[in-house]
Amino acid sequence: MYVSVYTVTNTKNCTDKNVRNGVRTVDIWPLILLNGLTLGAVYFVASSGLTLIFGLMRVITLAHGTSFLFGGYLGYVVAVATENWILGLLAGLLAAGLLGLFTHQVLIRRFQDDDMRVALITLGVAVIGTDLMLAVFGGTATQVPFPQNLQIAVDLPGIGDYPLIRLIILAIAIVLGLAIYFIIAKTRFGSIVRAGVDDAPMTSATGVNVRVVFAVIFAVGSALAGLAGVISGTLFPLLPGQDGSYLLFSLVVVIVGGMGSIPGAAIGSALVGIVSQFALVLAPTYAFVLTFALMVIVLAVRPQGIMGRPA
Amino acid sequence: MSTFSSSTPRTANWRGWVTAQNVVVAVVLLAAIIFPLVVDRPRFWLPNIGVRTLWMGTIAMSLVFLNKYVGLLSLAQMTFAGICSYGIGYFSVTMGLPIIPSIILSLGVGSFAGWLTALIAVRTKAIYFMMITLALSQVFYSWASQAIEVTNARRGIAPIPRPDFGFINLNDITTFYYFALFLAVLSYAIFRYTAKSQFGLAIQGIKDSPERMSALGYNVNRYRTAALTLAAFVASIGGVILVFDRNQVDPSFVSLDATLNILVVAVVGGIGSLGGVFIGGLVFSLLQNFAQDFTDRYMTLTGLVFIGVLLFFPTGLVGLGPIIRRLFSKRAKTSTSAESSETLDAARRAGTHNKKGQHK
Question: Which end of chain B is more exposed for a tag (fewer CB within 10 A), N or C?
Answer without folding.
Answer: N
